[in-house]
Amino acid sequence: MADEQPLSFIQSAPELGNEYRDDWLLNAWLETVLPEALLDEQRATFDELGRRSGGEWYRLQQADRVNEPRLTQWTPWGERIDAIELTPLWRQAKHWAAEYGLVATGYEDALGEHARTVQFARAWLFIPSTDFYGCPLAMTDGAARILSDAGNRELAERALPHVLARDGERFWTSGQWMTETMGGSDVSGTETVAEQDGEGRWRLTGRKWFTSAATSEMALTLARPQGNPPGSRGLALFYVEPHDADGRLQNIEILRLKDKLGTRKLPTAELWLNGTPATPVAGLERGVAAIAPMLNLTRTWNAVTACTLMRRGIALATSYARKRRAFGKRLIDQPLHRQTLAAMEADYAAAACATLAMVAEMGRVEHDHGEASPALLRLLTPMVKLGTGRDAVACASETLECFGGAGYVEDTGLPQLLRDVQVLSIWEGTTNVLALDLLRALAAAGIEPWLNTMRKRVDTLDDERTRELHRIASDALEKVPGWLDHRPEVLEANARSIAMNLYRITALVELSGLARRSLDSDLQKPLVAALHFARNRFALAPADTHGTGWALTGE
Ligand code: UCC
């Protein structure tokens, strides 16, 4: 009887739950790192963020899928306005970000050394459902750090109450305008010039080629004061408010929005500065060194974003595997598919532990905790940014594959995940630029701050059940000094594999540490993830110690 047969099978879509409760890794980390009373105090906020992230915000994100920001350059009557209209989700995200203190919490003195952990735990839940609104928040966090420390009282009094506001109307985000046509990696040739007008006011003229979140209320940017020498030492860091009190752009033209592969909700623009008023932040030279704290913070947000998008992909793929049947069984009941998901979980757990350990170190450094090590933080930042950026791309690709053909179809929302994630290994320093930055940090501080910390952490793996992890991590740590004992050009040729190896060791050690701490409360998942990562995913790339690989690339 034909009408008793379903005409066609309809697959139900993957679903998200409470993204805080469902994230065993984040829970285990917070439970073993935050004091109990502090976690109790924060739990309701985490829970609310988790619920909104997997519910209302996720639904809005799906509904907003095809919307993009729009630039209107002219009114019908010929006035140049260069107005950017944001997508509906982005317009609301600003208010949520302020309300949950996604920047301000990091500066809340009462939270002491844990301020950064609490801040980024909140951001962890917010980021994957808000279409890269984390980008302006990252830059705003960087600006808050610089303005808090630069000793420029006037600017601090002007901007800090806004960037640290918890009310969406008062909250400002900041841009970071660095990239020009000659490059985003090497900014030493920056062509934007700064000149003083007749009233002694600094004015900037030049073309900023790639400015993210061009709707921000303020920005930090680099320009060369007239008469300064070439090169990066001759650049200065300037503060700009793009709009005047009436909302008109202050001698800025928005030439176009960039036509990017992903992060398309983010209004990335090309700007022409034509005498834009600006204020020096910290003197009239060494602008790259002055903006470096912002770079290090956006790199931290980048790593956090990488982890949270790995987790989002895994959550969707796992939900799907619980619903989808093939060859007579649910995917989740099939050993090979289950093993694929387990490998993704292990990669996520490892990336998350490396990232959250970096975040915890940042909190200690900023609050002068007795055990804080600025040199360790300086080493961790580039390696964790580059490692998580690469792993997130691999995980997003695997996520799509877990859905078969559906993962390749636009209106599932899944292809956007892969396109978006690709940016994480490009902006804020590509993998190679960060590998070289790691060498810069190693040249200044040596490997000891990292090596000593990793050894101390490995010493805590004193349980019978963590013996294998202890052995694998110790063996890896022993190899490290040998990788660094080479002449500079060989070291430079190997920088990427060295950086990736150091990242993987950090991830293994931190995940193993979590596994050890979690055994006290009988929580097994971190141990299972650490063993899986160590046995199946922890392969150190051999370094090309002679630099012979170059022969393959000769002209
Ligand atoms: O802007 C972009 C889009 C914004 C989007 C933000 C999204 C955030 C994502 C969050 C997730 C949602 S993308 C463009 C971003 N651009 C970069 O990241 C630049 C990449 N390039 C580099 O990092 C290069 O290594 C440079 C620009 C830093 C190289 O500059 P120099 O001047 O050639 O290099 P030097 O001479 O080695 O460094 C100059 C000074 C030195 O200090 P002094 O003057 O005391 O000797 C360095 O030690 O800067 C210091 N320095 C640093 N200090 C350089 N890098 C650092 C660092 N990372 N930390 C501390």
Explain what this protein looks like in three dimensions.
The protein has a five-stranded mixed barrel with strand order 4-5-9-7-6. Among the domains are: 174-286, Butyryl-CoA Dehydrogenase, subunit A, domain 2 (Beta Barrel), CATH 2.40.110.20; 432-539, no CATH class. Helix content is 51%, strand content 12%. It has helices spanning 24-33, 36-54, 56-63, 88-99, 115-126, 134-149, 153-163, 287-323, 335-366, 374-402, 414-421, 431-445, 448-459, 467-484, 488-493, 495-519, 525-537; strands at 70-74, 80-85, 174-177, 193-196, 202-211, 218-225, 236-240, 252-257, 269-280, 325-326, 329-330. It starts with 23 loop residues before the first helix and ends in an 18-residue tail after the last helix. The model has no long low-confidence stretch (mean pLDDT 95). The protein has 17 helices and eleven strands. It has 555 residues and is α+β, with helices and mostly antiparallel strands. Helix 10 packs across helix 16 (495-519). Residues 132, 134-135, 138-139, 176, 178-179, 184-185, 187-188, 212, 232, 286, 288-289, 292, 295-296, 298, 301-302, 305, 427-429, 433, 437, 440 line the site of ligand UCC.
Summed up:
With 555 residues, the chain is α+β, with helices and mostly antiparallel strands.
Q: Secondary structure elements and their pairing?
A:
Blueprint: H1 24-33, H2 36-54, H3 56-63, E1 70-74, E2 80-85, H4 88-99, H5 115-126, H6 134-149, H7 153-163, E3 174-177, E4 193-196, E5 202-211, E6 218-225, E7 236-240, E8 252-257, E9 269-280, H8 287-323, E10 325-326, E11 329-330, H9 335-366, H10 374-402, H11 414-421, H12 431-445, H13 448-459, H14 467-484, H15 488-493, H16 495-519, H17 525-537
Parallel strand pairs: 3-6, 4-6
Antiparallel strand pairs: 1-2, 4-5, 5-9, 6-7, 7-9, 8-9, 10-11
Helix pairs in contact: 2-3, 2-5, 5-8, 5-9, 6-7, 6-8, 8-9, 8-10, 9-10, 9-16, 9-17, 10-11, 10-12, 10-16, 12-16, 13-14, 14-16, 16-17
